[in-house]
Amino acid sequence: MKTIVHAIDEMKMGGAQTHLLTIIKEMRRQHTEDVHVLVVLFDDTQFKKELKELAIEPISLGLRPLFEKRQFLKAYKKIKDLLQSLEPQVVETHLTWSRLLVNTAAYQLKIARRIGFEQGDVYMNSIKMRLANYGAQFFFHKIIVCSDALKKWVMQTHNIKEKKLKVLYNCVDLQKFAPVKEKDLKAYLELEAAPPRYTFVSVGTMGRGVNKRMDISIKAVAKLQKQNIDAGLVLCGDGEQRLELEQLSRNEGVEKQIYFLGNREDVDKILPHCYAYIHSAAYEPFGIVCIEAMASGLPVILPDSGGIQYIIEDKKEGRIYKSLDVEDMAEKMLELINSNTAYANYKKAAIKGVEKYGVRAYVDKLYQLYG
């Protein structure tokens, strides 16, 4: 029996958080004897439904006030005291501050296995953060990266040694995400009027730090509308940019075709009722929601940047467009709309192609690293 601590900066809606909960669920399914402890450095917990299903009560350390006062040593002591009391055999750390602080404490306490997950915090790349990440690598047994593109970025940006890195493509619970027999977005979302015939979907934060550039998707839909194409967009996510994005939809004259749903715990139910998935982030190391969309039977339209572009083959499971290019995104969306044959082929290939990202095989590989 192992006690495994999973530490993460915050439990806001995001790919790292979704991925963590997915692997914990599968670990408990495969290894019923193990004990899992979820430690959250800050107080944000937006996955109450999933945590309840997993019967996990996260330990929230509430470190934000200490961080605001720059009392990092006090924060570190609080982390170390907790780990000492838990006596885990494995410590996993997700996102930047958990990797830097929690894993270092685990190293000092001589915890048997220390595994880090680098999800691509590309906006935290100051000289100080680069130096911190460089030094921290020596306290890990392995640092998992979610794509070859991210591996290259980590090696170049933080000078992490290749021998410290292990590429494991992010996974998805294929039992949770699946197509529906009949799409009915109006009924599922309880809309007063029928949505546009071609309602695309995008999922992600609307924050400024991790900027998913939802504005690109909104403008692309507006371009289609100006061509008298009955296109719309469902946006799942929230953040400080939401008001600006809502104003943009009004400025573009598509406020009735853009559905701002906020953070949702039922993304798995929403995805299959949409027409196709579009992704507009300037850089995405991998993109879990993309494989969730594919598992839900959606063709995908992805940018030619970061690791996400390598999830699919252009014109097989979907289309690749020039990153941040509204015209090109709109063009690829229109190509999909104009060809029922291409749509059917992409859908079939997407469902087939996502099988290699199943969580069961991922957890098997992870347990091999645990030793």
From TrEMBL:
Query: Keyword annotations for this protein?
Result: Transferase
Output the lineage of the source organism: Bacteria, Pseudomonadati, Bacteroidota, Flavobacteriia, Flavobacteriales
One Pfam short name: Glycos_transf_1
In its UniProt entry, the species of origin is given as Haloflavibacter putidus
Residue ranges annotated for the Glycosyl transferase family domain, each copy included: 199-352
Q: In this protein, which residues make up the domain named Glycosyltransferase subfamily 4-like N-terminal? A: 13-175
Name-wise, this protein is: Glycosyltransferase family 4 protein
Give the superkingdom in one word.
Answer: Bacteria
State whether keyword RNA-binding applies: no
This entry's Gene Ontology molecular function terms read:
glycosyltransferase activity
Question: Which InterPro entries does this entry report, sorted A to Z?
Answer: Glyco_trans_1, Glyco_trans_4-like_N, Glycosyltransferase_grp1
